[in-house]
Each structure stands twice: as structure tokens, then as C-alpha cells.
Amino acid sequence: TLWPSLDAPYIDEFGCIDKDIHQAAGEIWRWAAAFAIGTLGDEASGQLALKKVCARITAKRASGAIQIGNLNAYIQTAFKHEVLAQLKHKRNVDLSTEPSTDYDLDIDQKILVEQILARMDQEDRRITELLILGYSFEEIAKKDGKNSNVIRSRH
Q1: HSE of 70 in the Cβ direction (CA atoms, 13 Å)?
Q2: Which residues contact 76 (CB under 8 A, 6 or more apart)?
Q3: Which long-range contacts link 152-155 to residues 24+ away (Cβ below 8 Å)?
Q4: Where does residue 109 rank: exposed (0-12), middle (13-18), buried (19+ CB within 10 A)?
Q5: Over its length of 155 residues, how does the chain's per-residue pLDDT go in tens digits?
Q6: What are phi and psi of 12, to 5 degrees?
Q7: What is the C-alpha separation between 91 and 101, in angstroms, rounded?
Q8: φ, ψ dihedrals at 83, nearest 5°
Q9: Cβ–Cβ contacts within 10 Å for residue 122, how many?
Q10: Is 12 helix (H, G, I), strand (E, B) or coil?
Q11: N or C: which end of the chain has fewer CB within 10 A?
């Protein structure tokens, strides 16, 4: 699916999206589509997530709550956070539904993942989630002000 072109700001189901934000999202769309397929399982969910992120960024920027230096990088990071939120929500929804015999193996794996995450301290859980989202050890280390080898040796 291609990211649609846009000549002016528009309002979509998540709110108003500025033209420059929409254009920047289009520039990262190929990456975002591949990321969505790998994490969410389909491109359409990724496109909705990216539109949602664009609307949020438009609203925050309009209110003066944020100033953005590198719009593409900001959108990419916000998109990863949205994907993480969707995965967490899906995990909670999936675990709250009634299991059927076809899903025994799947539910066992989900339980195991939840047990592993529950045993991790908050910092290890955060780093594990960032790794799942595709951040490199170097990116995490830079963000945390640590050496990537220290983080790599713990994970």
C-alpha cells in the first residue's frame, strides 16, 4: 500500500493532520509498513497507527507542547511507541479472551512470555520492549547514557 499524497492539511478519523507531518510520514512509510508487518502482522494496522501518530503530533505541535527538530525521526519514534502500545493492548485483550483448543499452544506461549516479563525488573522489561521494537543496543545505550556493551551483556 502506498502512502497517499496530500496537498493541504486534512482531518482524518484521528483528527487534523498537517501537510508537512503527513509528508514526513510518507517518507518513512516503507520502513513503517515493513515494521508493522513484522510486529503487528499486517500493513493496514501500521497505516492506521501512523495516521494516529500524525494526528497526535499535529495536535501537540499546534498547542505548543512540542518543538520538533527532526520530524522524520520524531514520527518514527512515536510510531514505535504506538506499536508497542498496540502490542501491549493486544496482549491484554488476547489473554482476557476465553481460550479454545486450537489456541492451546499459542496461549501457552503467551503465558510464558507474560511470566518472563513479570519476573523482569522494570529496567530489563523496558530494554526488552525496546529491543522488540527494533532499537539497537547502541540506540538504547545512547538514550540511557550507557555503554552498549553493558546493555548487550545483560540482554
Answers
A1: 7
A2: 28, 31, 32
A3: 154/124, 154/127, 155/124, 155/127, 155/128, 155/131
A4: exposed
A5: 677 776 656 677 788 898 899 999 999 999 999 988 888 888 999 999 999 999 999 999 999 988 899 999 999 989 988 888 888 777 665 545 554 444 455 666 766 777 788 788 888 988 988 888 888 999 999 988 889 888 888 87
A6: -120, -170
A7: 18
A8: -60, -45
A9: 7
A10: strand
A11: N
Check: CB of residue 49 under 8 Å from CB of residue 79: yes
Predicted TM-score (pTM) of this structure? 0.60
Specify the DSSP class assigned to residue 102. Answer: G
